[in-house]
Amino acid sequence: MKFATFMLQGREAVGVLSTDEQLIYPLAGIGDMIGLISSYGGESMDALPKEQPVPLEEVRLMAPIPHPPHDLICVGMNYLEHALESARFKGIKFKKTPNPLYFSKRVGRCTATGDEIPAYPHLTKQLDYEVELAVVIGKRCRDVTPQEAMDYVFGYTILNDVSSRDVQGSHGGQYYFSKSLEGFAPMGPWIVTADEIGLSPQLGVRSRVNGELRQNGNTKEFLYDIPFLISQLSSGFVLEPGDIIATGTPSGVGMGFHPPKFLSPGDVVECEIEGIGKLVNTVR
Ligand code: MG
User: Fold this and answer.
1) Which domains does the chain have, with CATH numbers?
2) What is the pTM of this model?
3) Separation of 213 CA from ligand 1 center, angstroms?
4) What is the pLDDT of residues 178-204, one digit of tens each?
5) Which of 53, 97, 160, 254 counts the highest number of beta carbons within 10 A?
6) Residue 71 Cα distances to 8, 18, 106, 175, angstroms
7) What distance in angstroms lies between residue 178's CA and the mean position of ligand 1's atoms?
């Protein structure tokens, strides 16, 4: 099933999409997506408390989790080709390590599909895009094995891990500030439940800028897979309903081209993942 957050008569509502994605049924008695995630027990579409449907094209979608409960957990260098392009840009050598590179991305408010990405011309000349499969945690989880991990995944959505490469480079190589500028977390268009995708997904992950195909990877290329990530993270802290793990981006980001193809105001960035949908944003 696909669950979305949207504006309904001036208030934030959560709804379920019809299978043909033409209609959205608001869910009665559910305050927000975290409330749905916390209370959902795998009910079928028929068993959900649905209100009268609204045509999807008439509603304004928001990010499925507009205010994540914590900073986003991000994985760096989870596709070999991207790790190599990134190392080339930085003039270093990439070597796969037994453990992934984790970092966090501060998010006040996630950007919805259709909304704009701010360009921050006073801060950055190297604005970049990264399409990523984002795992949405469904249940409180601590010390789980990779085999148990599936029970704790609510579903998946798409994240654009917008990044400023020059801010990254001019602040000691850190990621936090360069990826946490306000508006740098477009997410959506909705969450697809885990039963439709599974825990070892093989999904095409693509991005386009102004219609030009830039990234074209597949989640089967992960260097560190989702069960491993959940198990390892949960060995160190509690994961909670609505927590998000962004699983890294394939090659073809702006810094990977010669010369680099960074984003400019007016550019339209389309992030697409097979089985989920498209997240589309314009640079302001
Ligand atoms: Mg990333």
Assistant:
1) 2-61 (no CATH), 72-283 (3.90.850.10)
2) 0.97
3) 18
4) 999 999 999 999 999 999 998 789 999
5) 160
6) 27, 31, 5, 13
7) 11
